[in-house]
Amino acid sequence: MATKASRSAARLMMAPAVVLLLGWMLVPLTMTLWFSFRTYLPLRGGDQGWTGFDNYVRFVTSSSFWPAVSTTLIILIGVLVITIALGVLLAILLDQPMWGQGVVRILVIAPFFVMPTVSALVWKNIFMDPTNGLFAHLWKFFGAEPVSWLSDAAIPSLILIVSWQWLPFATLILLTAIQSLDSEQLEAAEMDGASPLARFGFITLPHLSRAITIVVLIQTIFLLAIFAEIFVTTGGAFGTRTLSYLIFQRVLESQNIGLGSAGGVYAIILANIVAIFLMRIVGKNLDN
Amino acid sequence: MSIKNALLTSVVGFGLTAGIAAAQSTITIATVNNGDMIRMQGYTDTFTEQTGINVEWVTLEENVLRQRVTTDITTKGGQFDIMTIGMYETPIWGANGWLVPLDDLSEEYNVADILPAMAGGLSHEGTLYAAPFYGESSMIMYRTDLMEAAGLEMPTAPTWEFIAEAAAAMTDRENEINGICLRGKAGWGEGGAFITTMSNSFGARWFDMDWNPQFDTEAWANTLNFYKSMMDASGPAGYATNGFNENLSLFNQGKCGMWIDATVAASFVTGDDSTVADHVGFALAPDTGLGKRSNWLWAWALAVPAGTQQEAEAKQFIEWATSTDYIDLVAANEGWANVPPGARKSLYENPEYLKVPFAQMTLDSILSADPSNPTVDPVPYVGIQFAAIPEFAGMATEVSQEFSAAYAGQQTVEEALAKAQDIANEVMEGAGYK
Amino acid sequence: MARAITTNRKAVNTALAWAIGLLIFFPILWTMLTSFKTEAQAINDPPLFLFFDWTTENYSTVMERSNYGRFLWNSIFIAGGSTILGIIIAIPAAWSMAFVPSRRTKDILLWMLSTKMLPAVGVLYPIYLLFINLGLLDNVFGLTFIIMLINLPIIVWMLYTYFREIPGEILEAARMDGATLKSEILYVLTPMAIPGIASTLLLNFILAWNEAFWTLNLTAAKAAPLTAFIASYSSPEGLFYAKLSAASTMAIAPILILGWFSQKQLVRGLTFGAVK
What we know:
The complex is a heterotrimer. Chain A is mostly helical. Chain A is 73% helix and 3% strand. Chain A has helices spanning 4-36, 54-61, 65-95, 101-109, 116-127, 134-141, 149-152, 154-179, 183-191, 196-223, 228-233, 243-253, 257-282, and strands spanning 38-41, 46-50. In chain A, helix 1 packs across helix 13 (257-282). By secondary structure, chain B is of the alpha/beta class. Chain B has helices at 2-20, 35-42, 44-51, 62-74, 89-95, 116-121, 144-149, 160-170, 191-201, 218-234, 244-252, 265-269, 311-321, 324-334, 351-354, 359-367, 392-407, 413-430; strands spanning 26-32, 54-60, 82-85, 123-124, 127-128, 131-143, 178-181, 256-262, 280-284, 297-303. The model of chain B is unreliable at 1-23 (pLDDT under 50). Chain C is 72% helix and 0% strand. In chain C, helix 3 (57-65) packs across helix 13, helix 7 runs antiparallel to helix 10 (194-210) and helix 10 crosses helix 14. Chain C has 14 helices and no strands. Chain C is mostly helical. Classes of the chains: A mainly alpha, B alpha/beta, C mainly alpha. Chains in contact: A-B, A-C, B-C. The interface between A and C is large, with 100 and 93 residues.
């Protein structure tokens, strides 16, 4: 048991991190809350005083609000499902004996090192451009009509780009988890005549549940905030306007800080709902 | 709070010491990554040699630039000594007192030589707030060879009806030739700018004299329906995501019969990168006989934010970069076709420059644009492809996103216009116009 | 017989894994190839894979136009500085959470993570105004500090999970031998956690390197890192695929090389406590 002395030492050691993050949270949050109750239009003479809950009402009654929330969730869930499903399969494959395992692993994790802006630019121009993109060339080669990816299938394209970026992360964590799986247990199950599918379902998957939880948690934090990918590819058109993009439009494009700040408060609330939801559903995996 | 302050202050301490080490007279310029600006950066050394002033460039893509400089100017961040801005921002910022008036430029600079249309659009109440680096209108660029093959002849001032007909005749899907390429990309400065100028010629307008949005009018429906049916029939695949740059590369690859866009593009489509340089003709932007053509007016201009520590140096740079001497410098090194166009009267009086095939048509287009009287019916705003009010950029970007979704077939033109009307109403109410 | 089956299986695994690996890596490979083409070759139909006139003209254009060295240095400084600073602040915090847990430890951890969910654009204006008042705009130190704050929750959490896997008995034994708290952390705990610390360093270096909102919006010329460098090559006028590819390659190459050399560390340490 920890002594009283070590307890207060522990508090002291936690202090810098806690104080810094508290500052990082409270200072902008307080300012955001303050702005959200004011009419603040930088291009129209700045702060024009108190306006009560007007900004909150206006943000939430705007025709763009609910579509933005659902787009945010669709992208989040889409990317999570794809990266985890493919990540599990890829991790199992990479765990098998093969030649050149190290090189393959390098190839697979490479997208994680690419800046979001760069990956969005490359995908948008060099691959998805309906005239000069590689996909268009490929489609034409097979005699098909090139697809205008970023207008006709904007959300799937966006999910593809973001999944490509995050698949390596999921694969890495799942691979580490699989490597710690007791192979004797699997062999024993095989002896008992369990089918590969059963072995996967009853041994591998439960073993991975904790790792999957981690992937869901970390990716959710980052995916709720994706911005560069949308800014570069569609600019929020074709139904790709997420909540954080909507706030960007209010704050920077429309120069309405009050309205944007109210949106920021909603985004924080949404993030916390998602977080609590996550904790309730899968958080138990994190304990013990 | 106090701990955070203490920590931040100590970080500031570091920052200050780092800052002092920097050279004394260095100006920082935020600019857009367009060809003419990048060329100008190449000549910066000439300026530094002449004046001893160093220049730091912050070159950004247009959307990023706009976001960056707007944040800085509204908060008085003071990060830039010169900002590259356009005709939309200048009068609004000037009215707010955020820009240094350019009313004391030198004799040799000859302010009176700036084209009146440009000077007018870059002024607020008669005071010039930004000096045009280059100016543009929009016009038709077309393939003379394809036009001939189609058995048609381009009038100097065509109607939209003729354009649609010619586009259909020039289209050859087998050989990947699209009769017409136009902007459809979302964004107020992209597809939004184009469709607004087009709507002007169809008799539509953004607002009536009481600032009521007008998207529920027949004129707007006609504009969008005409645009969409013409582009569906004769435009390139995925035109809903094409902006200036996408169309430029399509045209240069020989995949467009006609292209209506910025006059500055003329030097690119007749330049080295173009595969069709020898077969390009020019004509005025089309109309419908209602009295307004669908051409815009724009300038990329250099402005000095109020509060800069280096006002004198910044003005010195502006005088250099937007002078006739600079034009001569570029002409001497890279030929007359590559000088920044559309800013100065004297350029269009220069017989050498008038030999450039697109010079006269550029001037004619610029002269036919009237920002203070842009529409068939009267409007309370100034600006052709925009309305010079602070709310416009954000609102028009959202509106153009609805239009792009209609071009892509994700909603009907009627739905897009209804949504546009809602968006505009929401914004105008929020801004206190109603 | 059994041996033959394993060899066969190994061959199938190898083929499949290589195919998938190359598919995932292809966009990066293609970008690198494109960076050595001329603009016309870059959009050639059919696409040119290997047989084109290799040229380095795009790289020389980019080098001529931009001060790549300064962008690179700023990226290294900001990513490196923020990671190191973050680790220094996080180690004591993670230690006390792992070894002197209280009822609230879990809550504090989750709260720390939740600060990451604050949408950046929503607080751009507050932070920008704050930075003006503190004179921190376009300043690498200010930016380093912000990036450190953004990644601090992840750093604390990663370290916490590593520390928790270290058996407490070892620490108690050290304490018996009369080790002070300081020497306990420095000489007993830290060496044992080196793999974990290394992968925390790496992951956060990557995250900081790729952060593209604050680094773009709080800088002008002096402190701008590679994310701002890229913003000057996206969609200019005219053909730009080859130049964009060259600039992209230059922006990602340093981190890609670092990542490749250290991938063993990364794979070993990137567990977030997922392995028990």
